[in-house]
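**Fold tokens**
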Amino acid sequence: MIIANDATVKAGAFFPLTAKKVIRAQNIAIENHIPTIYLVDSAGVFLPLQEDVFPDTDDFGRVFRNNAVMSAMGIPQITAIMGMCVAGGAYLPVMCDHILMTEGSGLFLAGPALVQAAIGQKSSAEELGGAKMHSQISGTVDFREPNEEACIARIRALVDKMGAPNPSPFSHAKPRDPLLSADEIYGIFSSDPPKQYDMREIIARIVDAGEFEEYRAEYGETLLCGYARVGGWAVGIVANQKKHVQTLTRGSDQKRMEFGGVIYTESAEKAARFILDCNQNRIPLVFLQDVNGFMVGKDAEWSGIIRAGAKMVNAVANSVVPKISLICGGSFGAGHYAMCGKAYDPRFIFAWPMARYAVMSGDSAAGTLVEIKLKQLEREGKKVDEKQKKELYESVRSTYEHQTDPRYAAARLWVDAIIDPAHTREALIWALEAASLNPVIPDFKTGVLQT
């Protein structure tokens, strides 16, 4: 993991999202035991926004706390000071295992101007906290380097001496290429919500040799569950099926249609049990999301949809094997949670460019909010004509459409990366290889399951 300040933007100062981005990177390193390199050139907290950067558990101080925790966990950390590191920006380097510093850089809690204002002492930046001083006098720096090129060469030399991680507990075999081209995903997948496609065809272009051992294939068919290998790594796949399926109503021989992308009672129960099995057998989980949510209505409520959904959410929340999520199409409401959304600690969460990510779709939100607004206006004795209704609908819809864009999510760290659908396999292999670096699997416990 490489974390680098960009000194060309506000001298590398920490804005609210800067801290959260660094913390997210550190959390990935903690969860997967990834050695971490910091290239530091930071002025510390951006003072005009200090109330949003300084005090909370996911703010600036958490970075240094994570430094200490990572060191205690045995995760190697190397810092290269390649510019001025002042105030809070000076703590991060010294919390790491190895400290490198280039000539011309500075490391001090307070710069020359502040020192003079605070205690009346005059000194140059080099005298106060230069590379030579910290190498020869304070003893803070482990390696003093003449320039950035030499500093990076030294980092490479140090990394080269690191020991190998403990063996991974996850099954790995020789990788085999998919039988079908990943480029064909473009023609199979549809981001248009009403259109159907077979998620099995997507899976076939991601997994090794196209082999997918489907679990309970004829039950709860709007969720696909099954075992496969990706890049040689064994995985359990939980994926939303976007094809409508015809099935029998529970407790009778009447046929009914189940809509693709919707989680029904039977599919939630199947997925919950499958997730338990993957934890039992130490198999990492991959979630492929294109979900509208859970089924609603009298039939759904009578079948126990809330209980089944709670069971699935419990299984996802308490899973101890690595979880990797990919938002292919829509990811809405409680369906997003049950399919291992960001709140459920996936090791990595990716999205395709056509993904949509919100509590509900733009059309649904617009219809609901406009209806509420119209009733409010009616109570006030105001009349709204069709043109005003349409304008209100389009206003709400456009706002939601903007906010459901995956770029909106990525800018807020709700997803780790937006990836090309044809490169999905490579992203999953990379994530699984990272997850394999952490050999520790806690005991699996679910607590009370709704049955």
